[in-house]
Amino acid sequence: MINNDDVIAVWFSCGAASAVAAKLTLDKYASTARIRILNNPVVEEDADNRRFLLDVQAWLGVEIETVAARRYPLQSARDVWEQRSFMSGPKGAPCTIELKKRARQDWEAENRADWHVLGFTADEKTRHDRFVLTERSNVLPVLIDNGVTKNDCYAILQGAGLTLPRVYRMGYPNANCIGCVKATSPTYWNHVRQQHPDVFQDRAEQSRRLGARLVRVDNRRVFLDELDPAAKGRSMKSMDIDCGIFCEEKP
Questions:
Q1: Are 56 and 19 in contact (CB under 8 A)?
Q2: Distance, CA of 12 to chain centre
Q3: What's the CA gap between 139 and 10, in Å, rounded?
Q4: Distance between CA atoms of 36 and 62, rounded to whole angstroms?
Q5: What's the pTM value of the predicted model, to 2 decimals?
Q6: What is the pLDDT of residue 200?
Q7: Is CATH 3.40.630.30 the right assignment for the domain spanning 7-249?
Q8: Domain range list for the chain
Q9: What is the pLDDT of residues 105-119, one digit of tens each?
Q10: 243 in helix, strand or coil?
C-alpha cells in the first residue's frame, strides 16, 4: 500500500527502461505520493545521454535531480579505477560501488525514501527477485507488473517522439559508460575498438598498467592490447551488462 505521504525514489540511468519506469510511476502514483526522479551522472557515459535526460525530463514534466558521489567530485569511473588500482572482478566493478551505490547511500542518509523504482523489465524478473532477496524489499516493480519488456520500452519512447541515446543506435546494448569494464566479450570490446578507438586505447593502457585482464577469449582472460581485432564472442544483442544497483554481466 502506498500512503499519501510516501516518497518514491525513481533511479533514472539515462537508459530506456528507467525512463519508462519513471513515466509509469508518475502515471500511477503521482496523486498519492511524492515522486523524486534521481540520476547518478558518470563522465564516461556518452555526451548524448545528457540530451536524452533533458528530453525525458520534459516528457515527464518533473525535474530529474542529480545524485553525485562525494568522494569523486568529477564523477569519473576512470578516477575510481586509478585510485583503487582495480577495475573489475567477478562481483562487479568499483565504479558502480563508488559512483552509484555509495552515492545512493549518501543520498538516503539525508533524504527519505519509502520506496524505490529501478528499470527492471519483465524479462529481468529473476534479477529483480534476487535484488529484493539480497538488497532491499521496498522496490516497486512497475515494469514487471505491467509486463513491459526492454523492447517495449524502446517502442514506448519512440511512440512518445523521444530519440533514444545515440549509443543504442551505434549498436551498444545499453546507455552505460562506453568501454564498460564489466564486459568480458571480445565482441563488445572489438565493437568499442571500432566505434570509439580512443576509449579502447585508453582502457587498454590503463588495464595493462593496473594488471586487469578485461576480456575473455576461449575461457582465458587476456589484456585488451592482446585482443585479436577479428575475435568474436556472444552477439551484442545477447549481452546484458547492468550498471545499476547490480553490477555484473550475465554469464
A1: yes
A2: 9
A3: 10
A4: 8
A5: 0.90
A6: 98
A7: no
A8: 7-249
A9: 999 999 999 999 999
A10: strand
